[in-house]
Recover the amino acids of this structure.
């Protein structure tokens, strides 16, 4: 018999699933715009750590589960438009075309810190700011 | 000052109510205009009064805030006052109202519209085939009209749902931009107020220390090194001595030989309770 036993395959599949969930699943972004909303967001994060991906001062990333959405909607119900809800997708450098990555790498290793990008890109094979601005990812 | 307690009218710069069963906090609330009894006829209480209007052993005191108010009552101005007024105006001008959003509509998904388009094309094809054959077309024409109508309805619904979603997001964003602007203005206002307070305190710290030193009935060994650490009653008395107070102060402490002496020392009309 060749290859791993079914049990090992199951464990591997499980691992891959968890990994891909972390790498590719969107998360919920909650941003608050008043002190009261911010306080309640902090309380939600403290009480339900399991659904908090990351907490910032007046914003937090919650896992995109129905429970995460439930907590986010509670805040929205209570504070109306003072709570902003968004769904955000993970972003990796590889998700961006190579010329953008190269431009960023080259510009950050420039010798003169005060050189503006426009000027830096002019003599090189790098995209102009206008071109970068005009292209959706 | 004129004061009427249950049928008796008191008048003068210093009124002694020690023999009357009336609480100091009741009189202070009446002076602030928070209650109608006892009836008080006296100048309106200024900001200093909120901190030091009622001096009694159980009082608390935000010494620095009260002292800054006292400096203001003496007409002190700061280099930040114009900026403070400007920021307050800007804050007051910002619309606080949360906008009403258009109703959220049920989204029509792309697959539904694609399916409808496909079946509309298919019935049109069948109609064309029948026309070519010279077969009867009436029933199939009805189907063509019906599928075209359904497709148009779904497309309209979808456009309306998209438009509603776009408007909801636009209005929410405008509102949140305004909220963010309000927060920045409020932060700047708070900073300027702190600056102004520091300037007022710098200017009034020495007179405050001198007034504290003159507070009667306060043993030397209980006086702190830093004037701002003074206990509430002596601090409040010193602040009142510095402040320009037209409203009658309510006093519940035995440091002065008489209400009139207290009124003279504080430089304010006074009710002794």
């Amino acid at each position: 018999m060749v290859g791993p036993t079914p049990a090992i395959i199951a464990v591997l599949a499980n691992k891959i699933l968890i990994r891909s969930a972390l790498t590719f699943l969107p998360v919920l972004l909650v941003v608050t715009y008043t002190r009261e909303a911010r306080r309640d967001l902090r309380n939600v994060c403290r009480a339900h750590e399991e659904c908090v991906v990351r907490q910032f001062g007046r914003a937090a990333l919650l896992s995109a589960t129905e429970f995460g959405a439930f907590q986010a909607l509670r805040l929205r119900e209570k504070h109306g438009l003072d709570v902003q809800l968004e769904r955000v997708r993970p972003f990796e450098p590889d998700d961006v075309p190579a010329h953008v990555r190269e431009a960023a790498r080259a510009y950050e290793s420039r010798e003169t810190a005060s050189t503006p990008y426009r000027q830096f890109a002019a003599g090189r094979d790098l995209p102009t700011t206008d071109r970068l601005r005009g292209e959706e990812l | 000052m004129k004061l009427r307690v249950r049928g008796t009218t008191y008048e003068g710069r210093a009124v002694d109510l020690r023999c009357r069963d009336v609480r100091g906090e009741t009189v202070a609330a009446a002076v602030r205009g928070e209650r109608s009894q006892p009836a008080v006829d006296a100048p309106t209480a200024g900001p200093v009064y909120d901190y030091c209007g009622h001096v009694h052993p159980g009082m608390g005191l935000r010494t620095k805030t009260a002292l800054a108010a006292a400096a203001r009552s003496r007409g002190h101005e700061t280099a930040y006052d114009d900026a403070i007024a400007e920021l307050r105006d800007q804050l007051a001008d910002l619309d606080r109202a949360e906008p009403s959003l258009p109703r959220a509509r049920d989204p029509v998904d792309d697959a539904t519209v694609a399916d409808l388009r496909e079946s509309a094309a298919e019935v049109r094809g069948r109609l064309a085939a029948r026309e070519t054959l010279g077969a009867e077309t009436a029933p199939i024409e009805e189907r063509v009209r019906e599928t075209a109508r359904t497709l148009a309805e779904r497309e309209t619904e979808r456009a309306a749902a998209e438009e509603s979603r776009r408007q909801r997001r636009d209005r929410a964003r405008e509102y949140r931009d305004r909220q963010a602007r309000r927060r920045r203005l409020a932060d700047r206002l708070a900073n300027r107020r702190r600056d102004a307070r520091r300037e007022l305190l710098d200017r009034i710290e020495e007179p405050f220390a001198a007034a504290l030193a003159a507070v009667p009935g306060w043993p030397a060994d209980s006086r702190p090194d830093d004037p701002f650490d003074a206990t509430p009653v002596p601090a409040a008395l010193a602040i009142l001595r510095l402040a320009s107070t037209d409203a009658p102060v309510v006093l519940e402490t035995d440091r002065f030989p008489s209400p009139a002496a207290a009124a003279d020392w504080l430089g304010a009309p006074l009710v002794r309770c």
About this structure: Residues 8-20 of chain A have pLDDT under 50 and may be disordered. The interface with chain B takes residues 31, 33-34, 80-82, 84 of chain A (CB under 8 Å). DSSP finds six helices and four strands in chain A. The two ends of chain A are 48 Å apart (CA to CA).
